[in-house]
């Protein structure tokens, strides 16, 4: 887990990069008649930059802070197992980020009409179904492993 500002920035940048890219792939695939193809992977690679920038800003200024505050109402970082602390932070982060990024997508795709609330709920549900397991089982572990490799020396000194 990040201990310094720089570590927190790097951790958030890597996490957001992987999550936004993979969620972009997912959304393109589920909205395409062809599903997941090599072309889907390339399309996502060329179209996720604005969402990435927004996700990083939302994560820094809202998502992470709020997720930790909510998680620490459920777990105690001084008493509870580190696994549960990380798990609850991930769960709350996904809930917050899916809700906020789904809103952003609706506004940027100009999907504001009389069905806005239903469209929003549907989008949140579709994204949450993929985002939570993706974060817990793939992105979270990969980013923590990369983080430990990048900051190996600093983490050993701590």
What is the CA-atom radius of gyration, in angstroms?
Answer: 17 Å
Could you tell me how far the N terminus lies from the C terminus, measured between alpha carbons in angstroms?
Answer: 12 Å
- Output mean pLDDT: 94
Task: Give the overall shape, derived from the CA principal axes.
Answer: globular
Tally of contiguous helical segments: 6
Order of SSEs: HHHHHH
Helix content: over 70%
Strand proportion: under 5%
* Largest pleated sheet: none
Structure classification: mainly alpha
Low-confidence stretches: none
Task: Please report the total strand number as a whole number.
Answer: 0
Provide a descriptive summary of the structure in words.
The protein has 158 residues and is mostly helical. The chain has six helices and no strands. The protein has helices at 5-30, 38-47, 49-74, 82-108, 116-150, 152-157. Helix 1 packs across helix 2 (38-47) and helix 1 (5-30) packs across helix 5 (116-150). It is globular. The termini are close together. The model has no long low-confidence stretch (mean pLDDT 94).
List the helices and strands and how they pair.
Blueprint: H1 5-30, H2 38-47, H3 49-74, H4 82-108, H5 116-150, H6 152-157
Helix pairs in contact: 1-2, 1-3, 1-5, 3-4, 4-5
């Amino acid at each position: 887990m990040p201990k310094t500002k720089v570590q927190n920035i790097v951790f958030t940048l890597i996490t957001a990069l992987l999550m936004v890219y993979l969620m972009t792939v997912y959304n393109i695939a589920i909205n395409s008649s062809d599903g997941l193809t090599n072309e889907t992977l390339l399309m996502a690679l060329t179209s996720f930059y604005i969402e990435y920038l927004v996700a990083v800003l939302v994560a820094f200024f809202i998502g992470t802070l709020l997720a930790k505050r909510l998680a620490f109402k459920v777990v105690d970082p001084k008493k509870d197992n580190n696994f549960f602390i990380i798990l609850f932070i991930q769960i709350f982060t996904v809930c917050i980020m899916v809700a906020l990024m789904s809103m952003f997508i609706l506004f940027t795709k100009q999907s504001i009409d009389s069905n806005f609330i239903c469209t929003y709920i549907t989008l949140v549900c579709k994204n949450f179904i993929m985002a939570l397991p993706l974060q817990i089982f793939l992105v979270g572990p990969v980013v923590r492993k990369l983080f430990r490799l990048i900051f190996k020396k600093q983490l050993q000194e701590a």
